[in-house]
Design goal:
Layout lengths: L5 H7 L4 E7 L5 E4 L3 E4 L6 E5 L2 H10 L2 E6 L6 E6 L3 E4 L2 H20 L4 H7 L8 E5 L3 E4 L13
């Protein structure tokens, strides 16, 4: 498992736009937008916060996901893959972090020219269905456009 070093910890702390890919037991794919992500204190696990019932069902079936995380103002990006994801309910502290993360992402999207109304349609709303997909990355790939895109990130 790749280590989540200080630089990756800082990057994953956001504000970032995200896409999360899953698949069911028949390998039928789905994609959703998490509201945010957070590195766990052990720095071995990451939580992606989502409310998409299809993605949640896929993760419960297969435990497989791929999370793409991109900073809108710089295009710096990474893909984290996992085969051990689990769905967990949010604590009050995590829910507060999700609210803060969403607000920071909306501000970041305004910096690249999106109106608040458009940005709010891209970033999922926070509701009672939000859960954490908790996983340890089995691989991390650099996805920043340019030389080195697609390279496996080593710690």
């Amino acid at each position: 498992m790749p280590a989540i070093d200080d630089a990756m910890f800082e990057f994953l702390s956001g504000p970032n736009a995200m896409l999360l890919g899953t698949r069911d037991s028949l390998n039928v794919p789905a994609i959703t937008r998490p509201i945010g992500c957070q590195v766990c204190p052990d720095r071995e696990h990451v939580m992606a916060f989502l409310a998409d019932s299809r993605a949640i069902a896929h993760i419960r079936q297969t435990r497989v996901l791929a999370l793409v995380v991109v900073r809108p103002t710089t295009y710096e990006g990474y893909q984290l893959k996992a085969v051990d994801a689990e769905i967990e309910p949010l604590t009050d502290e995590q829910r507060a972090a999700v609210v803060e993360n969403r607000a920071k992402l909306l501000e970041e999207m305004a910096r690249v020219g999106l109106t608040p109304e458009i940005a709010a349609t891209v970033v999922p709303r926070i509701d009672s269905e939000v859960v954490a997909a908790v996983f340890s990355p089995s691989a991390i790939f650099r996805q920043t456009p340019g030389p080195g895109a697609g390279e496996r990130r080593e710690s």
